[in-house]
């Protein structure tokens, strides 16, 4: 099973095709994965690998490690475009997510005030007012919507909770009108005998309808870039991705293909 884990709370910097030079923050255990989705394409692998034995990093640990890393980078005149919450699962599951965001913003302002703070989230926790408050404070509130058709979403993203539905999440995403960036992974393939393809006209039209309801600041669309735990998935090529982007643009939505 494909598994790429980050073995520390602070990792990188790495070059992100979407965000530039990015310093990562992993709020999940350093030796396992905790996520409210179990996506077929997740580079961290399936949830079945377990949460590991390490505890979640504390707010103080995040502060101390990030402070040391930013101080070192600043002293060496290293470039930094963004500090990104990502890692071994869903960052907003951390019980002190809001406090960690406050800490990261403070340290960003101290060392790299021009850098952005981004959160890559699967949208499962946007029903919690404290999480919403924290997401409103970051520069790039990047929220996932891989399909606006319920069966497709359940096959691709495999949410843990049966209460998480397309209708419910689209309704909740509306609260970030003009503030959120919606991120959609396009892919095709097979899983457990089910065909997967969210590039069809039906799928793209349903997504455009959802984007119009949400009214995000921007939509990011992309496809597989690394090996996936479900090996029967295929990347959507650049030309096709750009054609999908053009259709989204024609609907009056700001979109960037990556």
Quick structural overview:
The chain is α/β, with parallel strands linked by helices and 258 residues long. It has 7 helices and 10 strands. Strands 1, 2, 3, 4, 5, 6, 7, 8, 9 and 10 form a 10-stranded mixed β-sheet that branches.
Characteristic key phrases:
globular, ten-stranded mixed β-sheet, 258 residues, alpha/beta
Oligomer kind: single chain
Q: What are the secondary-structure elements, in order, as H or E?
A: EEHEHEHEHHEEHEEHE
Shape: globular
Number of helices: 7
Cα distance spanning the termini: 26 Å
**Class from helix and strand fractions:** alpha/beta
Mean pLDDT: 96
Rg estimate, integer Å: 18 Å
Biggest β-sheet strands, sense, barrel: 10 strands, mixed
Low-confidence stretches: none
Q: What is the number of E strands?
A: 10
Structure commentary:
The protein is built from seven helices and ten strands. It has helices at 59-75, 97-111, 129-137, 150-157, 166-173, 201-214, 238-250, and strands at residues 10-16, 20-26, 82-86, 116-121, 140-144, 180-191, 194-197, 218-223, 233-235, 255-257. Helix 3 (129-137) links the parallel strand 4 (116-121) and strand 5. The longest helix is centred in the first third of the chain and has 17 residues, at 59-75. The chain is α/β, with parallel strands linked by helices. The model has no long low-confidence stretch (mean pLDDT 96).
């Amino acid at each position: 099973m494909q598994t790429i884990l980050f073995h520390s709370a602070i990792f990188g910097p790495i070059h992100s095709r979407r965000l530039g030079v990015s310093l990562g923050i992993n709020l999940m255990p350093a030796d396992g994965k905790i996520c409210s989705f179990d996506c077929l394409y997740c580079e961290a692998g399936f949830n079945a690998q377990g949460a590991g034995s390490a505890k979640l990093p504390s707010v103080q640990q995040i502060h101390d490690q990030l402070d040391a890393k930013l101080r070192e980078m600043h002293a060496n005149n290293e470039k930094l475009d963004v500090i990104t919450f990502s890692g071994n699962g869903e960052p907003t599951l951390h019980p002190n997510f809001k406090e960690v965001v406050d800490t990261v913003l403070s340290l960003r302002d101290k060392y790299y005030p021009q850098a952005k703070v981004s959160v890559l989230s699967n949208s499962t926790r946007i029903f919690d007012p404290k999480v919403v408050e924290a997401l409103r404070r970051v520069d790039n509130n990047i929220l996932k919507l891989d399909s606006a058709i319920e069966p497709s979403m359940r096959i691709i993203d495999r949410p843990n909770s049966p209460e998480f539905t397309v209708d419910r999440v689209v309704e909740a995403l509306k609260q970030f009108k003009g503030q959120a960036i919606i991120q959609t992974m396009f892919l095709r393939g097979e899983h457990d005998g089910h065909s997967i393809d969210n590039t069809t006209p039906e799928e793209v039209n349903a997504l455009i309808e959802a984007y119009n309801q949400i009214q995000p600041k921007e939509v990011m669309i992309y496809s597989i870039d690394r090996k996936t735990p479900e090996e029967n998935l295929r990347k959507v090529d650049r030309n096709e991705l750009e054609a999908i982007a053009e259709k989204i643009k024609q609907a009056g939505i700001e979109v960037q293909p990556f």
